[in-house]
Structures are given as C-alpha cells and as structure tokens.
C-alpha cells in the first residue's frame, strides 16, 4: 500500500506528495514508518527550520516565525501538519521540540551577532506536550543562556489546547516565562474552545488570528470574527497578528479593522535560512531607499 502510493507520488514529481499523503491518512503501517523515520531524523540531520517574515502596515519586518521542515530520505518532504501529530502520539515530540528550540535560538543568536539587519523577535511553535513538561520553563531559560540571546527576542507560540490542559499550571508557567522576558503568542486563535473567561486570566502578549478567519474575509466578505478578535485584543491590551495573509485586499481590510501586523504569502513564504537572510537584507535596503 505504502510502496504503491509512494511509487505513484514519485511519478507525479518531487513536490507532489499530496496523493501519497492522502493515502497515508488511512494506513497504520505508514504511520509506523513515519514514527521510525522520526526517531532517527534528528541524528540523520533531516530536519531544517524555515523562516517566515512578519511585517507591519508599512511592510517593515517586525519578526519571523520558525517552521519545521522534514525531508525523509525516501518519502521526500513531509509537512508538519502530518508528522507533528504522529510525533506527539508516539511520544517523540519532546526531543523534536527541544531540537527546534535549540536550533531556532542558535540561528537567532548568529544573526544578531552579525550585520544582518534582523528586526524584532523570532516565534517558535511549542506543542501542547512540550509545554506540559514540568521542566519546560527551565529548558527555555537554559537555551537563552546558552546562546546569550535576550529573552524579548524569543516569542513562543502556543495553542489554546496546550493552555487549557491544566489551567493553574499553565498560568504559573506563562507567568514564569514572561518574568524571564519571553513573549507569548496564542496561535490559531479562534479555532479552539477556550472561553473568554479563561482567556482573560492568561498572561499573553499576542493573539494570532487563524488563517481560516482571514480566508473568510475574502470568501464571504465576512469581517465579523476578525472584528471581534480585534476588540478582544484591544480590551486585553494584546498585540494582534493575522496569519495566512495572501492578498493585498485582505491586508487592506485588516488595516481598516485596526490590525497592523501580518504574516503570509503576500509578503513572503517560509524560506530556508539563506533565502530568508536575503529577504531581510533586501527589504531593509528597499525601505531605506524610499
Ligand atoms: P502554524 O503555526 O499556524 O503555522 C502557519 C502555517 O501556515 C505554516 O504551515 C505556514 O507555512 C502556513 N502559511 C503561512 N502563510 C501562509 C499563506 O499566506 N497561505 C497559506 N496557504 N499558508 C500559509 P506549515 O509550515 O505547514 O506548518 C503547519 C503547522 O505545523 C503549524 O501551524 C504548526 O502548528 C505546526 N508546526 C510547524 N513547525 C512546528 C514546530 O517547530 N513545532 C511544532 N510543535 N509545531 C510546528
Ligand atoms: Mg505558529
Ligand atoms: Mg498559526
Ligand atoms: Mg494556523
């Protein structure tokens, strides 16, 4: 089954693994294969972080998000939406998450130590399981110390599910992280089930509006949800960023609603480090030319 699907996917070209992945959903055998692959992916150096810029209303860089990429030696590129859940289920998200945090902060430190005009923070996604670990805050503190990066430069993206699991623990962990100086963003905001009663007690810095609501703005001309999120962000004195912004129309509609921070293909796709640093340098010189 797996071999067959893989064979057919290869025939469709290197990047077109969608067909294979569709079939993959079904098979437990394939999941085991992914699990095995994930267990050795770190030592085999198959992981790589890509970086997607975040910009303000003037197009100026305000930060970036690190996004994990995995190239399996035979299966090719496998998207995180497929392998992260497998890693979580198999209980191997911890080592992967630690690798991500270490590599992201190492890269950030190296950019800040050179003349790359890097601006703002670097956001790193944190799995619910990773966040739930008792030593998570300690891990973050250690990695910042290891690379001598100032904590404000690091933003952690957590999801509602991650935060609601053990609410008291969550609140105290978030407090500790913010005492360190690290920023916290609530990723995919609006897609979870957290009530506003919970939300108001969470020490956060940013709400990240899920792409689904940004899509809604174009598809159905429906701004209601984004408008509500902007209001919530305003009341709670949080920054609000929109993810998955693909068109100028979306950006302008967001600007009209008071949202001034963006991430999406309109500005740049997630890029490998070298390309990303070119983007950073180029946008800086373009803005200076204006
Ligand atoms: P996310 O954190 O919500 O990341 C945003 C996703 O939207 C990324 O997909 C990004 O490539 C994609 N994206 C950004 N702008 C656009 C756009 O304009 N249009 C479209 N169509 N897509 C856009 P990606 O990289 O495939 O990651 C998917 C999810 O996998 C992430 O969602 C995150 O939940 C998870 N993930 C990625 N890297 C990591 C990681 O290092 N650790 C953990 N725990 N999860 C990760
Ligand atoms: Mg994210
Ligand atoms: Mg997101
Ligand atoms: Mg999302």
Automatic annotation (TrEMBL):
Domain of life: Bacteria
Keywords from the UniProt entry: Membrane, Transmembrane, Transmembrane helix
UniProt keyword Transmembrane helix present: yes
Domain EAL: 31-284
Official protein name in the record: Diguanylate cyclase/phosphodiesterase
Organism: Sulfuriferula nivalis
């Amino acid at each position: 089954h797996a071999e067959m699907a893989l064979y057919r996917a290869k025939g469709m070209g290197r990047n077109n693994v969608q067909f294979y992945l569709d079939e993959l959903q079904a098979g437990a055998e394939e999941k085991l294969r992914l699990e095995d692959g994930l267990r050795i992916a770190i030592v085999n150096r198959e992981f790589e972080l890509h970086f997607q810029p975040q910009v303000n209303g003037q197009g100026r860089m305000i930060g970036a998000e690190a996004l994990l990429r995995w190239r399996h030696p035979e299966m090719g590129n496998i998207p995180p939406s497929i392998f992260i859940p497998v890693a979580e289920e198999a209980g191997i998200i911890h080592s992967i998450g630690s690798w991500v945090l270490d590599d992201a902060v190492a890269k950030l430190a190296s950019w800040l130590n050179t003349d790359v005009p890097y601006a703002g923070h670097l956001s790193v996604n944190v799995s619910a399981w990773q966040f739930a670990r008792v030593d998570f805050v300690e891990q973050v503190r250690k990695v910042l110390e290891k690379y001598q990066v100032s904590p404000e430069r690091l933003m952690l993206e957590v999801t509602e599910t991650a935060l609601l699991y053990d609410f008291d623990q969550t609140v105290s962990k978030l407090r500790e992280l913010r005492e360190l100086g690290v920023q916290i963003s609530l990723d995919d905001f609006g897609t979870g089930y957290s009530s506003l009663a919970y939300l108001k007690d969470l020490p956060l810095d940013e709400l990240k509006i899920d792409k689904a609501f940004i899509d809604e703005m174009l598809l159905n001309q429906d701004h209601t949800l984004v408008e509500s999120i902007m209001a919530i962000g305003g009341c709670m004195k949080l920054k609000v960023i929109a993810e998955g912004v693909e068109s100028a129309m979306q950006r302008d509609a967001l600007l009209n609603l008071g949202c001034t921070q963006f991430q999406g293909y309109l500005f740049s796709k997630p890029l490998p480090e070298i390309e990303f640093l070119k983007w950073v340098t180029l946008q800086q010189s373009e803005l200076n030319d204006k």
